[in-house]
Amino acid sequence: MTMSDTQARPAAGIRNTIESGRTAIGIELGSTRIKAVLTGPDHEAIAVGTHDWENQFVDRVWTYSQEAIWSGLQACFASLAADVRTRYGTELRTTGALGVSAMMHGYLAFDADGELLTPFRTWRNTNTGDASEALSELFGYNIPHRWSIAHLYQAVLNGEEHLGSINHLTTLAGYVHWKLTGRQVLGVGDASGVFPIDIATGGYDSRRLSQFDELAAGRLPLKLAELLPAVLPAGEQAGTLTEAGALLLDPSGTLQPGVVLCPPEGDAGTGMVATNSVARRTGNVSAGTSIFAMIVLDGELSRVHPEIDLVTTPAGDLVAMVHCNNGASELNAWAGLFAEFTAALGVEADSGTIFETLFRSALSGAPDGGGLMAFNNLSGEPITKLHEGRPLFFRTPGSALSLASFMRTQLYAALATLRIGMDVLQKSESVQLDRMFAHGGLFKTEGVAQNLLAAAINTPVSVGNLAAEGGAWGIAVLAGFVRDRAEGQSLDDFLTTAVFAGAELDTANPDPADVAGFNEFMQRYVAALPIQQAAVDNS
């Protein structure tokens, strides 16, 4: 159900639903947009609010300021409240449940007074290589650069002064939830990107906690378990909105305290929920500023793979995650260039039209890219062992430069590192998939990126209209799960019977010509990686 579908529903009935609090609110802090979704008792979106923001590269660290976090959240909530007011002629005073999600990982460290000790270090930073390597070897478990524990241990290795005052470590979602409720907790999916989770207990792995404490002995004021937030599975109540929290979210004072919150989650977990991909042998691909695939596993992998993160669903089941730092940002930059050219010609075209025109042109491009090559790396990319990014486009002298092949190459570049990680799962580990879903901005143009992804991973790829509102809708569904959960009901059962029953899906099957073309492109992409490294080394 998309927002346009709600237009046909009686506004008076929805207004009564809103005023009686039979709703849920989900808020997700993504890399370039903060989004809020209001859902009704049937989990369909009835109002939306947004606020655009961007990270800053300050002192060679990707960050967002605290002021940007809270001003952005307030602007997003105000946008949601305005949408409710415009559509239904009422104020958004309460809701039945609320949830917060955000981009996973990163590093937010606080002292005992709740003061931030160092600027927020986001998932996008890849300056934690020494810590990542040391912890992966110690634990026998892949610890990626962006994980919170890698950031903490890198600070230890660097001898950073702030560690003497550290009292609490959390993620962006955990930070916002803490300020709204006073509780320092994380949903298990978000927590699984902080420190390894013991699937049997649903909490942090106690053996590895002890190993870390021994490694960092004398260099931190507290044991690691004392620094980390508590872990909660989906469906558990995770506190209530305090008076101070309500005012933080809505300074106008219209929103009332007392609302129940679900555990805060990461964007990977909300993507799984938004695509009904929490059952074993299902998976999803989320594509925005970053691109990642989440595959719910039948069991443990045979060995450690540096390309694969092991995280969990919001219910605590084991997930193989292929995470690529670079997604659609370079595509957006090229679209912006074409928009400038269009404007210079005096032709009026909105961004949606420009994107759709460019994306659709890719369908007629050469299946292998026609000798064109692109790298979309704005930041470092651990899967290809790049510590920094340099976006590149080049071609062989005999190639034909056409818009169609150029755009196909740019879309292929956005999927290339994902393919490298998926090869590890599908070929090295023989992981089987019953279904794969896709969501995110890359897939808004129907039948383009979806078809090319199907070719890239040689697997049918489905998209559905329920996931149109993305992770913000996913966390609203998790909030609704807290509100509506039957005794003992699993998250998978709730999604299947209460949320996605009757949902329509559009499935793209791999085209053999595109599969062969993408394979040829990948051979040239991997062979050309030294060119990307040379650009990093010499510019």
TrEMBL record:
What SUPFAM superfamilies has UniProt attached to this entry?
Actin-like ATPase domain
Q: Can you give the residue ranges of the Carbohydrate kinase FGGY C-terminal domain?
A: 284-480
- UniProt cross-references to Pfam families, sorted A to Z: FGGY_C (PF02782), FGGY_N (PF00370)
Superkingdom:
Bacteria
One GO MF term: kinase activity
Q: Does the keyword Cell membrane apply?
A: no
Spell out the CDD domains in the cross-references: ASKHA_NBD_FGGY_BaXK-like
Sorted alphabetically, the Gene Ontology BP terms of this entry are:
D-xylose metabolic process
UniProt KW Hydrolase keyword: no
Pinpoint the Carbohydrate kinase FGGY N-terminal domain residues.
Answer: 24-246
Q: Which UniProt keywords apply?
A: Carbohydrate metabolism, Kinase, Transferase, Xylose metabolism
Similarity comment text for this entry: Belongs to the FGGY kinase family.
Q: What is the protein named?
A: Sugar (Pentulose or hexulose) kinase
Name the source organism: Actinoplanes lutulentus
